[in-house]
Amino acid sequence: MSSLTTALDATDLSALADSIKTWGRELGFQQVGITDTDLETHERYLERWLAAGHHGEMDFMAKHGYKRTRPNELIPGTLRVISVRMDYLPPEVETTKVLGQPDKAYVSRYALGRDYHKLIRKRLARLAQYIEDEVGPFGYRAFVDSAPVMERALAQKAGLGWFGKNSMLLNPQAGSLFFLGELYTDLPLPVDEPFDSEHCGSCSACRTACPTGAIVDDKVVDSRRCISYLTIELHGSIPEAYREAIGNRVYGCDDCQLVCPFTRFTRASHERDFAPRHDLDRAELVTLFAWSEEEFLTKTEGSAIRRIGYERWLRNLAVGLGNAPWSETVEAALRARLAYPSDLVREHVHWALERQREKRERLIAVSRKP
Ligand code: SF4
Ligand code: SF4
């Protein structure tokens, strides 16, 4: 990071911090906060979480030493972090209704449109440009869920919200369906008050609602049980113990956010990039399962979904189809994939066909009862 060439006094810096917040809102961020780089408390939390193995196969969580919890070790010279928040739920998108329709696919609502990383990084770059226009060259780096960055911890310290029992960052006026981004900077800006009050109270709706019991303690998610991890991060076979609980969630899971009472304060996002593409907010499982690899690559171009690749996409959909009510169409769709050249896909297809067979036999048994 290069250092600021012009000397700014406290008054200049305070005015600059105010301007940064105004510019941030003009650029489409709902909230902007500023914090220092001391993440000691969160560092201890991360150490305990890793020691318990809650990160599963996500080795990148343990890989970077203290770079994640000490911003100055990731980007030398970092003094402050500008933390931003952007709502993402598009207007008129169903959530729980689709979860209750087991022949439809549920895609986590953050992944319905174009990949958010690019959009937020571009906006952060523009924010940095505004700052540079004001004060001259300064050191900065923009991050969006892309490097070892403790984004929720930094956002909490910057005053954007508190850690809910589901481990998400919650804002009392906005819920938790938002993206976070960060601008690491060497500007010694005044910091905001951290969000120290916690508003979960005696509520534990998220813990009760989690389909796989992944919230093992308040604010502690065991990723190895979490559907987001199982459908997105996990490369191999999904443990059978969790397949039924996955239901129709084929990419991520929002349950612990959807049941949260603060989610009713979610404000719709009118960012065009976040609007659902290819009916991903309401598509039938069989329709998505019929996509060829070429279609998958075309339709998920510029989407977060693409990162799991076609094989895991089919794996997840096979689980969803195994959990769907019995129908000839579902069975036929699964049978059509029996020769698919991937052990991973075939194994999940066999599992799904077995579930379909059980349901078919149960229906026949019921129909034969006098
Ligand atoms: S995302 Fe789903 S599986 Fe993961 S903790 Fe939340 S409710 Fe549980
Ligand atoms: S559901 Fe209840 S306990 Fe869970 S994060 Fe929301 S308010 Fe907190």
Topology:
Elements (H helix, E strand, L loop, with lengths): L9 H17 L4 E5 L4 H12 L8 H4 L7 H4 L5 E8 L8 H4 L6 E2 L8 H20 L4 E4 L7 H7 L4 E2 L5 E2 L7 E8 L19 H5 L5 E3 L2 E2 L5 H7 L6 H7 L2 E3 L3 H4 L26 H5 L3 H7 L9 H15 L4 H8 L7 H26 L2
The structure holds iron/sulfur cluster (2 copies).
Catalytic activity: epoxyqueuosine(34) in tRNA + AH2 = queuosine(34) in tRNA + A + H2O
Pathway: tRNA modification; tRNA-queuosine biosynthesis
GO molecular function: 4 iron, 4 sulfur cluster binding; cobalamin binding; epoxyqueuosine reductase activity; metal ion binding
Q: How far apart are the first and last residues' alpha carbons, in Å?
A: 79 Å
Task: Report the radius of gyration as a whole number of Å.
Answer: 23 Å
Q: What percent strand? A: 5-15%
Q: Which kinds of small molecule does this entry bind, naming each only once?
A: iron/sulfur cluster
Low-confidence stretches: none
Secondary-structure element string: HEHHHEHEHEHEEEHEEHHEHHHHHH
- Supply the helix-strand structural class: alpha+beta
Key traits:
370 residues; Leucine-rich Repeat Variant; 4-stranded antiparallel sheet; 10 strands; binds iron/sulfur cluster
